């Protein structure tokens, strides 16, 4: 049988048509629904709340475009220039050089590198006169999730109405471009392999610069983050509790390098080497797939409950003194309000010795820090015996310094000099704050957005010796740990009829700061 050219061409055309049909059918049946679902969900998340997503080829932030859209003259605002022109942020007749009631793009200088953020100074920011100085106000510094942006995060979280109501300043910092997109260098996540960029240094610089431009009450500065930004917020509680007196972590954990249990231990070492303690709030969903509830050994994420346990331990909270003010089918919280650990800090060499002993014990047993299936791992925390050793050493040191010399801290001159360097900018603000007669009283009642959701019900019971402790411990040592478990919750910023994350964070700040306007 003779095969003609026309027959061969017809056969090839039929084959191509059939293959095209099958490919298109496969796309229509399998990939198209997935595509629609993914993008519908993504667009909904972008419109309604904070975002955290892996995007390898994401478009980096354009600071010039940000300035063109947000700033009065469409030009960048450099904090260095504003600071040079500002005599006294808390002085008489000092108006904030950043416009009130408007989100404004600003540029910070950190290690000779330009970093960016957006600032909101509320209309309720105290107006000064020739005879009345400004009243120091609290400040919240926001850190967005992976591949979100600072402007969107500020608006999506809904903090602006609260800033107007309570008079606090908002700063939303912009992340840097890494392997996984716009992110924060918080540890094992997300897309940075070394110490650069120094995001802890950036966060410190934000507080330092803002305090020279607006009258900030530096005892009332809180870091708030989601996802990768939440991880940075917790790292700031580890490394900079003198600057950030509170941290709110939504969908994050401590994952300081090298991560897992060792990362938790590293945070504990840094915290115990300092005098200050930060109050920490954590909100975590039990079905979070990006930062799993049970941890992820490969990514260096410890389990959420282990992360909570370490904060309770490192801040020396009374584990048997805890309150629950929310208990629904989906949301349950726990509040550890008796945490005052800074006075029992062990010396640097003592902590190092305890750590070495702990490592040797683990190595001699041949036991790894983590074991079990990937994604559902149990952290092996520092045994209580070693924690007790650290506390006993700290108690002994504290007793020698405070009671062995007639109750005065005569032996702390060297230590105080070191801490004065660390807290230099705090000392300046304290002098300004003192003349306003700050009084500590708890702010109760409802906030603007919360309605009847999670109303605080005080179940506090005074513990033996509490009054003595509160007179002995510096207020910088007193902290609070709170945790909200979201049953069935994913990697999100929970906002529904039962619970508002933003509202809860504002209430948390009111509790640990003893009110915003006190």
Automatic annotation (TrEMBL):
TM region positions: 21-38
InterPro entries, alphabetized: AB_hydrolase_fold (IPR029058), Esterase-like (IPR000801), Plant_Biomass_Hydrol_Est (IPR050955)
Composition-biased stretches (Basic residues): 427-440, 447-462
Region listing for Disordered, in residue ranges: 398-474
Pfam family, one: Esterase
GO molecular function, a single term: hydrolase activity
Compositionally biased intervals (Basic and acidic residues): 463-473
Signal peptide annotation: none
Keywords: Hydrolase, Membrane, Signal, Transmembrane, Transmembrane helix
PANTHER family linked to this entry: FERULOYL ESTERASE, UNNAMED PRODUCT-RELATED
Name of this protein: Peptidase S9 prolyl oligopeptidase catalytic domain-containing protein
